[in-house]
Write a structure and sequence with these properties.
By secondary structure, this protein is mainly β. The protein has a single domain, classed as Glucose Oxidase, domain 1. The strands form 3 sheets. The protein has a 9-stranded mixed beta sheet with strand order 1-13-11-5-7-9-10-4-12, with helices on one face. Helix 2 links the parallel strand 9 and strand 10. The longest helix has 10 residues. The radius of gyration is 17 Å and the shape is globular. The protein starts with 5 loop residues before the first strand and ends with a strand.
Length: 210
């Protein structure tokens, strides 16, 4: 039996990383630099909480929602299922046919149109509200997509976010799954303990099952 291996499913964060139009792009400033005679390098980063692969907290879309620091950790670690969605426009209920959500508590969707780390697309694939409702009502603990949001860019109601949050389902967005085969893995993707944060970057990693 092969040894388990780790698969990084996080997007690279740098000055070219695509962000939501109008949001803060990544920048790095050297506070101390060995090249300038200092004893070590020290950097300051400025970027949106939604840059690259990140976990939304309920504070992002609910005025009284918990922040990243108060978010439960259990949903972000454990067995998960990677599913290849069939429609490049959105994840539909049809993509859940044959999946027992009661036993597949963490589900990551690989959409047909993979985006580069530096690429933005206004009509990215989202999670159809009907699919979000099935996942929430079925007992899912975490849902992830390889696109910037579980709701479409033009949404003002954020239906999928709210349907998932109403049942305590954690949300991962902007995963990198184009190199991952559908199937079962173990997920590790903890949000940072930042008080007041509406989202947090994560280093999302899958481990193959031995």
């Amino acid at each position: 039996m092969p040894e388990p291996r780790l698969i990084d499913i996080s997007r690279v964060i740098n000055e070219s990383t695509a962000v939501w139009p109008g949001d803060t792009t990544f920048s790095r400033r050297a506070v101390m630099a060995m090249s300038a005679g200092c004893s070590c390098d020290v950097n300051t980063f400025t970027f949106s909480a939604h840059t690259g692969t990140h976990a939304d907290s309920p504070r992002h879309f609910l005025a009284q929602g918990v922040d990243s620091a108060a978010s439960a950790l259990d949903p972000y670690v454990g067995r998960c299922l990677v599913v290849a969605a069939s429609d490049p426009r959105c994840v539909r209920p049809e993509d859940l046919v044959g999946i027992d959500i009661r036993t597949e508590e963490r589900i990551l969707f690989r959409t047909p149109r993979a985006l580069r780390d530096d690429e933005w697309c206004d009509d990215f694939a989202f999670l159809a509200p009907e699919a979000a409702a099935l996942l929430a009502e079925g007992g899912a603990r975490l849902v992830g997509l390889d696109t910037p949001s579980v709701d479409p860019m033009t949404s003002k109601t954020l239906a999928a976010h709210k349907l998932l949050a109403a049942r305590g389902v954690a949300i991962l967005e902007s995963l990198c799954l184009d190199h991952v085969a559908p199937g079962r893995y173990e997920l590790f993707a903890f949000p940072l303990r930042i008080q007041g944060a509406d989202a947090s970057p994560v280093r999302a990693v899958l481990r193959t099952l031995g």
